Amino acid sequence: MTAIHSLAVFCGSRVGNNPAYAEAGRVLGRGLAEAGIRLVYGGGRIGIMGVVADAVLAAGGTVLGVIPEFLTQMEVAHAGATEMIVTDSMHARKQRLYEESDAFLVMPGGLGTFDEAFEIITWRQLRLHDKPILLCNVDGWARPLVAMIEHAIEQGFADPGCRQLFEVCDGVPALLRRLGSLPAGRGGPGDRF
Ligand code: AMP
Question: Can you give the pTM of this predicted structure?
Answer without folding.
Answer: 0.94
